[in-house]
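Hi V.,

You were right to ask for the full record rather than a summary. Here it is.
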Amino acid sequence: MQQQWSARADAAEDAVVTRHLKRLWGLPRTGLGVVGWPSVRRERCFFAWHYWWQAHLLECVVDAADRDPTPRRRRRTAKIVRAHRIRNITGWTNHYYDDMAWLGIALERAQRSQNLDLRSAIGDLESQLFDAWAPESGGGIPWRTRSDFYNAPANGPAAILLTRTGRLWRARAMSDWVDDNLRDPGTGLILDGIRFPSGRAVHTGILDRAVYTYCQGVVLGVETELALRLDESRHRRRVHALVDAVDKHLTEDGVIVTGGGGDGGLFNGILARYLAFVAARLPGDDDSDQRARRVAAQIVLDSAEAAWENRLEVEAQPLFGCDWARPARLPGLGGSVSTFSGGTVRSSAVAERDLSVQLSGWMLMEAAYVAAGSLDRMRAAPRLP
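Predicted structure:
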């Protein structure tokens, strides 16, 4: 089964590279993702580039290189890293802690698996995230600098990075903060965030009860990372409960529900990535551990099968839909294009036009490769008496 998903991941990679990956301003040894296809001039010139989308492009490239290492993939990784630094102009950081966390995760993986020396970049990002911890203000870390909004999309990926760089005590504190403040007792799902307006007591924070798939993904990621490193069973228990909550509330016929386009185009792919991570890496051998790994893998594979069946083929390359359970739509230049507004990238008129949606499809194919291997190992493992 893994070989089939490897071939599909290759096809998704080829489609994104062909349609979206271009030199930055014609500079040698660079590559960034054009954020729409078909593209308009400001996208081709990288006036619009969306920092955190590029971080996920880099992580997808690392996924492919981990699955099947080649010199071309290693060179591609280095080109994207170089282009990101140049396009960001002022350094590696920006004002959004979630953005910086995503890039930090991608760079740490690139350094670890592709033997690139990115210590300085990772250190810059790690220190920003570590220093943003603000329990006196209610956090957690905020969504962005000078913000009173503390959310899962910042704390989750920041904690994943800090776990991987050895700051376990802070990552553990972040995971506990999310569980204490953002877990919905009714559904077991992770809510978006909590606001602590100036002048109000910390205990009177205002919850944003929106539920997004990627919030579940990042919490699954950090809890699995901590379960691997700490002898504390609460992290495994949280994974068990959250996998079940995702299966119950965020899938339809086994397929992860739609996230739309714009920034939302990445949400489902992120959940799939970390469900596959649970399937492959969650430790423990009791029935609850095995069930969590099996359910996580099956959600990924059911979603990937649906997305593949509902893809379009454009010049013999896949184009994935923003809703994996429905046929993809062919984008054109007749409608509106994605725009950045209020800290968020809004969807193009046809969401399939957005790089985020296509990256999510690629992410899903890579996750399916991992999940399929995990299921194969589970089926082959001898049952304990």
